[in-house]
Amino acid sequence: MKKAVFFIFVLSALQNYAQDSPKLTPFAVSKHPFTHTGQQMIVGQAIGGLEKEYRLLDDGGIYRRMNTAKEFEVLGEQSKKNIEIAFKSLKDINFEQLEFQHPSRTSYFIIFKQGKKEHKVTWGDSKFPAPEGAVQVYKAFMGMIPAAMRL
Question: Going by C-beta distance under 8 Å and a sequence separation of 6 or more, which residues neighbour residue 102?
Answer without folding.
Answer: 122, 123, 124, 125, 127, 128, 130
